[in-house]
Amino acid sequence: MKALVTRIAPVLLAALVSGSAPSIATAGPSDWKWGEIEREELFAPHFPEAPYADAIVLLDHHVVRVDAKERLKQYHHHRTRIMKEGGRDRGVVSIRFHSDDEIKNFRAQTIVPPGHQVEVKGDAIQKIEGPVWTEWVLTFPSIQPGVVIEYEYEIRSDRLDRVAPMDFRERDLVRMARVDLQLPFDISHETFFGWSPGAPEAVKSQINDPDDTRRQLNQWTWEAEGVEPLAQEPLEGKPADYAMTLYVQLVQKVGTGNDPTAGLRSVDTNASVRSVNAASKEEQIRKSWEEVAKESFAALGKMWEKDSGVDKFVAGATAGASSPEAKARALFFRVRDGITTTAAADIRGSETLRGVIESGKGTSLAKNLLLMRVLREANIDGRVVKVPVSRSLQPRWYCADQFDGAVVRAIVDGKTVWLDPATPGCPYGMLAPDKVAAQGLLIGPDGGLVDVKVGDVNSQRNIQSEATIEDDGSVAVKADVKLAGYPEVEARAAIAKKGEAEWAEQWLRARFGTRVELGAVRLDEGPAFLAHVEFRLPGAAEKIAGGWRGSLPWLTGESANEFESAERESPVDFGYVAATDETITLHVPDGLSVKAPEGETVRMAEVNYQVSHAPTATGLQSSRAFRVREPMVMPTEYAKLRDSWSRIAAADGAEFKTMTGARTAGTR
Predict the structure, then answer these.
(1) What is the pLDDT of residue 502?
(2) What is the dihedral of CA 61, 66, 72, 73, to 10 degrees?
(3) CA dihedral 613, 616, 619, 624 (to 10 degrees)
(4) Hey, how many other C-beta atoms are within 10 angstroms of the C-beta on 27?
(5) What are the structural domains of the chain?
């Protein structure tokens, strides 16, 4: 697959080579003309970067501009080529924007080779109006393998704090992704990609304003080609495991008077710079985290009210239940099994609880909100927690509506109980394996957000494993694995039923398939629940000239979901924490040697760990020392975020610990 590279625009490249300042250029809305597609992209039977792909994103271009009237304009031009039958679903596209913003210059079409264009219009555009968000759902006509879908539009807003995140990595390979940020000299900004290995760097230039050529703008350009699609499970710490999303926040407007060069200077927000520019007028643009929370959950307002039908729902589900725990269990199972999950969680959910109860159907988020509401009706404290699922390695704290999971935290008889009503078969008091609640956004009674901390909720961590390649290519494995959360519950249930072997076989086959031959199994209960397993994988290694080739179990690690809540004190960090030393020993047959690069550095989840190798008598021993690094928090904003979250937490009665110092790296 083609490696990710950053390409510098030709006008900027010439300036960099010559060493001179970049020239003034005129930038139109797009360097890619509507409907003009290269012959290769329109007729190629496949693309070498992704020869088996169902679809390929040919172009994803964003332009963010602040115009002369200080309005925000966000332009988007997108093209996707459908390659196979499996890519037909790309023909349905959703465009979402704030209801008080405007969408302008919209057009969409399907391009059918050799060049027939079918416009998207009329009934093919479904417009869904909401109190906060408006959504356009486009259904492209003539969708079949070989066609290209193309659309472009512009969102205009009076609010400069509404720059939407822009994704460089998508479900399909992206041949060209580009973002142009065009700002007046008196507007400063902050941008970051979060944890995104291989993310492009910005190239700065000056352009003439496309709306008024007498006016000049600063432009920052991020451009990347051949961006690999977001990886599917299992995650192996490769760049494709990480979302690559550019976040832009316009920070402040600084009055520059008549000095034409003032706006070219970097604007710092610290006190010393402000004192130097004391005469300058500063207008804060960035919203506080508290405002973000309030706005993000405004769409759920109706769901917080006492809907008709809730009292009858509770009475019917809890008939005969007397204790709080019995009521909580009854309500949990009634929502989990009695309400059909219709779609993934969506923060924009327009459903009402009454509608969910009457129809017996609801989104994942609606089921969690219903459970929270009926628990409160039964005098049990329940809160909905928006959490990242483990599939997404970097939750986007900048945008509260982009967390992709929800669970309920209930207080039953003074104890915290975690409930996951949207996952079929998930036990009472547990979370599904893909849910992560070590850090999450908790929705308070008023719809605001409260920080939440949990201990280990779901984890399986390799403590030590030993793999031996046998003469016939089979791999014999001995492994010690720490279990927590959902896997631990299942394992403990197996002990009670004396079914350890059946549990281990099912657990291992879920990872390695039916070829697993199970050996000895021992489950050790205790504060650290350990599974000692021995098994064999026939034919896992293939003998080639000079060695063996194959994927060996656990050599990629299983530590992404290990949490230690005592170490997580920053209210805006929602990352994964793993802290352990892990030793893996590989034995190979006589006469063969194993080679591996020394000091290989691997990035996995939010953790950096160092891999070092030492030869042994029969092969190679690999040790990994984990070094934890906190997810990025902008230093200039941390104090504001901390204070904002402190006020929310205090109002809700939640425990909050202030962070005594930012930890950037360290070994625990």
Answers:
(1) 87
(2) -30
(3) -30
(4) 20
(5) 5-283 (2.60.40.3140), 293-453 (3.10.620.30), 458-562+576-628 (no CATH)
Please state the pTM of the whole predicted model. 0.50
Alpha carbon 651 to its chain centroid, in Å, reads 29
Tokens representing 523 are 């489950």
Report which of 244, 345, 242 is spatially closest to residue 560, judged by C-alpha positions: 242
How confident is the model over 619-631, as a mean pLDDT?
Answer: 40
- Side-by-side strand order, sheet with 439-443: 415-419, 405-412, 381-387, 439-443, 449-453
The beta-carbon contacts of 2-6 under 8 Å, at least 24 apart in sequence, are 2/48, 2/49, 2/225, 2/226, 3/226, 4/198, 4/224, 4/225, 4/226, 4/227, 4/228, 4/239, 5/224, 5/225, 5/226, 6/200, 6/201, 6/223, 6/224
pLDDT at 101 (0 to 100): 92
Grouping H, G, I as helix, E, B as strand and the rest as coil, residue 527 is coil
Distances (CA, A) of 373 to 234, 329, 352, 449, 593: 36, 14, 12, 17, 62
User: Interior CA angle at 632 toward 630 and 637, to 5°?
Assistant: 120
Distance CA 246, CA 165 (A): 6
What number is the average pLDDT over the span 224-237? 74
Biggest CA-to-CA distance, the chain? 83
Helix, strand, coil shares of the chain as percentages rounded to 5?
20, 35, 40
Backbone dihedral angles phi then psi of residue 231, each to the nearest 5 degrees:
-70, 150
Q: What percentage of the chain carries pLDDT values higher than 90?
A: 23
Contact 650, 561 (CB under 8 A): no
The C-alpha atoms of residue 325 and residue 305 are separated, in whole angstroms, by 24
Distance CA 450, CA 19 (A): 50
668 close to 609: Cβ distance less than 8 angstroms? no
For 352-359, which contacts have Cβ atoms below 8 Å and span 24 or more sequence positions?
352/302, 352/303, 352/307, 353/303, 353/307, 353/309, 353/310, 354/307, 354/308, 354/309, 354/310, 357/307, 357/309, 357/310, 357/313, 358/309
Write the pLDDT tens digit of every residue in 432-489.
645 544 444 444 443 434 444 333 333 455 566 676 777 777 878 888 777 765 566 6
Q: How far apart are CA 311 and CA 324, in angstroms?
A: 16
What's the CA gap between 211 and 69, in Å, rounded? 11
pLDDT in tens, 345-399: 444 445 677 888 888 888 777 888 889 889 988 999 887 766 655 433 333 333 3
Give CA separation, 85 vs 115, 228, 231, 299, in Å. Answer: 20, 21, 20, 36
| 341 contact partners, CB below 8 Å, separation of at least 6 | 361, 362, 363, 364, 367, 422, 424
**Per-residue model confidence as pLDDT tens digits over 115-165:** 899 999 988 999 988 777 788 999 999 999 999 999 999 999 988 878 888
**Which neighbouring-strand residues pair with 546?**
none
Distance of CA 260 to the CA centre of its chain: 41
State the Cα–Cα distance between residues 421 and 369, nearest whole angstrom: 10
Specify whether the CB–CB gap between 484 and 560 falls below 8 A: no
Show the tokens assigned to 64: 């963010």
Cα separations (Å) of 663 from 249, 266, 436, 452?
Answer: 24, 27, 22, 20
